[in-house]
Design a protein that fits this description.
- The complex is a heterodimer of chains A (about 210) and B (about 290).
- With about 210 residues, chain A is an all-alpha fold.
- Chain A contains nine helices and two strands, in the order βαααααααβαα.
- Chain A has one domain: Fumarate Reductase Cytochrome B subunit (Up-down Bundle), CATH 1.20.950.20.
- Helices cover about 65% and strands about 5% of the residues of chain A.
- A two-stranded antiparallel sheet of chain A has the order 1-2.
- In chain A, helix 5 packs antiparallel against helix 6 and helix 8 packs across helix 9.
- The mean pLDDT of chain A is about 95.
- With about 290 residues, chain B is an alpha+beta fold.
- Chain B has eight helices and eleven strands.
- Chain B has a four-stranded mixed sheet. Chain B has a three-stranded antiparallel sheet with strand order 1-5-6, with no helix packed on it.
- Classes of the chains: A mainly alpha (about 210), B alpha+beta (about 290).
- At the A-B interface, helix 1, helix 2, helix 6 and helix 8 of A face helix 3, helix 7 and helix 8 of B.
Chain lengths: ~210, ~290
Amino acid sequence: MQAQPHELQRYSDRERMYHWATALLLLLAACSGMAFFHPNLFFLSIFTGGGPWTRILHPFIGVATAFVFLFLYLRVRIDNQAEAHDKAWAGKMGDMIRGNKDALPPAGKYNPAQKQVFWAMSISLAVLLLTGFVFWRPWFAPYFPVDLVRVAVVLHSIAAVVMVLSVIVHVYAAIWIKGSVRAMTRGTVSRAWAKQNHALWHRQMTEGKK
Amino acid sequence: MAGTNPQNVVARSATTTPSSQVRSSPQVAKLIDESKCIGCKACQVACMNWNDLRDDIGENIGVYDNPSDLTPSSWTVMRFFEVEPTAGNLEWLIRKDGCMHCEDPGCLKACPAPGAIVKYDNGIVDFVSENCIGCGYCVTGCPFDVPRISKKDNKAYKCTLCSDRVAVGLEPACVKTCPTGAIGFGTKEDMVSYGDKRVGELKERGFQNAGLYNPQGVGGTHVMYVLKHADRPELERLPKDPSVSPMVSLWKGIAKPLAVAGMIGAVVAGFLHYMKVGPIEEKTDEKV
């Protein structure tokens, strides 16, 4: 979608499609995976066709999630590198949580909290992918010693919890900071939103273009 | 087993409430006395016969072990060991391998499928195949390397201790068939005292380290061995002090409730935060 004069382009159509494909697959992967994690969540396996089907599908869904996310990762990785001015912002996290937005120093395209979520997701997804192969039945598990499998299932679970918590933070932030969701539904944000939440990015986008 | 087996279920995989267990029945145990075993494999045949199992014809691996390992359709296997417990003193040890029916079964602890693994109050640990989803978690839970996943149906299989026979007052098929009386079956109490008696006899005959293998790391087992060298069970590929892996205990123990509480807590915290702090409103263009 084309940005109107009062708008700024934040994500391309392609980036949004990568994002939402990842989101849908991750939802399926999380539901099917959590079914195996806690007995009280086993009912989640109905969304992927019951116990055996969930066992069959979960690894494929997981690999598909990681594959699609890779494209998104390659697009947004650069903007999520730590920068010198992040430190001041991170020091004001308390103000952010109290909703005291004006106390915060200007942020780039992503603020340090967003960067943390991005790297938590990227790293946990990589751990999920690698450890998942170790106990993927019937294809790969028989080739790994059982002690390695035991470590892999624990790491897989830890990474999954980190991933789910990151998603909760990510979704909540989108609901909390009004004007954010349209960045992913339409690709554009208002200039006011950009100036308010990502002043450095706003400056970078508007300098010499007005 | 739904409908057909009226035994008490004292533990059921991936289930957080008690199963039906109002009846009471004595704890049972199988006692394998290796000093009486002649390695005839009648127990293997009886197991195949009663359970209608026919394994594929395998490979000769140069020793008597046949088949060479437990498989989805070989639930018990005689393992033969040529060892020198003391230098220059060759012994031929024979161990009937199979599920140990742990009092604290790691397979059941690890299993994520409700009711795929049950423990009856007589101590038998049973796989309920219709509920098995083929994930292989039981393999990670077992300290004895017993469960085998079938390539045919992706279900886990192992010795049932003939739970179907025991339920109607019969002894397991291997016990019934053993021609030397090396395999005994009865209440756990009787088998422990009989085992202790056999250990005493073996000690008199010069096996100073004879002992009963009933490892406490898994709460004791409902399949026990009388070993001639109980101080070195690893001579016969038995773990010296088996227990459920700490990884599995962590994963299916404290991590489970903690992680679920953390995830639900995060959602609730977000909700309350929104109610307390309110949204960060988008400023309109005019104000900027």
